[in-house]
Design goal:
The protein has 9 helices and 10 strands. With about 260 residues, it is an alpha/beta fold. The protein is globular, with a radius of gyration of 19 Å.
């Protein structure tokens, strides 16, 4: 069974096709990077896969469950960290995690134990009485990740999880994600930080103008990039990305008054 599978998945906003006929396959236990330029359709795709947007056409399945016809069962199996944190700001961190746990019908002792462990691990324990409205951006991101994993999802969606956080928090989050992969969780990651994707992901897909332009194991895709390798190393993910989305010539352009 595939962790994520779409067939001809599409989303239109009026005359604009944000996602156009997406056929995507993600094997269970894969750390999967979903890449594309700004406006390529990445967040729209995640919103359809997680049930926040209804597709205009096509189908999507999470662990065999249709995201439209079996929406509740599909959502029970996933965790989501959106690009923009959607937190209840008048709650404290522990109160928010308790609320999320109850939404997943978790036993109260399990909720309390996992909440305490997550708050401690994320460095939020000393701010347990602070309202979320007073959290910094990095604290909000760490709380969002905590809420996404507290119910032990089998598929985790991460939309720009490393944006705006410091190096210490980034390393901690990467360590947690690697532990989840080792336990068989599937992680679907979007990020503009290609170096992080290259370090973490074994498989990638690249979307451009709503259409899928590449999909497969990262090493195989990099091997297919034209041009010689540098110092015996395989071509970078950046080289692959630019070759597919047409950005290879942008580095030579600049401001006319600085010539």
């Amino acid at each position: 069974m595939h962790a994520i599978e779409t067939h001809d998945l599409s989303k239109r906003f009026g005359d604009v096709a944000a996602v156009d006929g997406l056929d995507l396959t993600v094997e269970a236990g894969t750390f999967f990077g979903f890449l594309g330029p700004n406006g390529a359709g990445k967040s729209t795709t995640i919103n359809m896969l997680t049930g926040l947007l209804a597709p205009s056409a096509g189908t999507a399945r999470i662990l065999g469950r249709d995201v439209v016809g079996e929406a509740v069962e599909a959502k029970r199996r996933i965790g989501v960290v959106p690009e923009q944190s959607a937190l209840f700001e008048r709650l404290t961190g522990p109160e928010y995690l308790r609320f999320v746990g109850r939404m997943y019908s978790m036993p109260r002792p399990t909720i309390d134990a996992r909440s305490a462990e997550l708050m401690e691990l994320m460095g939020l324990a000393d701010d347990g009485r602070k309202l979320i409205v007073d959290y910094s951006h990095g604290m909000r991101k760490k709380l969002s990740i905590s809420a996404a994993v507290i119910h032990e999802p089998r598929v985790l969606f991460l939309d720009e999880p490393f944006e705006g956080i410091d190096a210490v928090a980034s390393r901690l989050i990467r360590s947690i994600l690697q532990q989840m992969i080792a336990s068989g969780v599937t992680i679907f990651l979007t990020s503009h930080i290609l170096e992080i994707v290259e370090k973490l992901c074994s498989h990638v897909a690249i979307i451009h103008q709503g259409r899928l332009v590449a999909q497969g194991p990262l090493e195989e895709l990099r091997a297919g990039v034209e041009g010689p390798a540098t110092d015996g190393e395989p071509r970078s993910l950046e080289a692959l990305f630019l070759s597919l989305v047409g950005g290879e010539g942008t580095a030579e352009r600049g401001l006319s008054w600085l010539d």
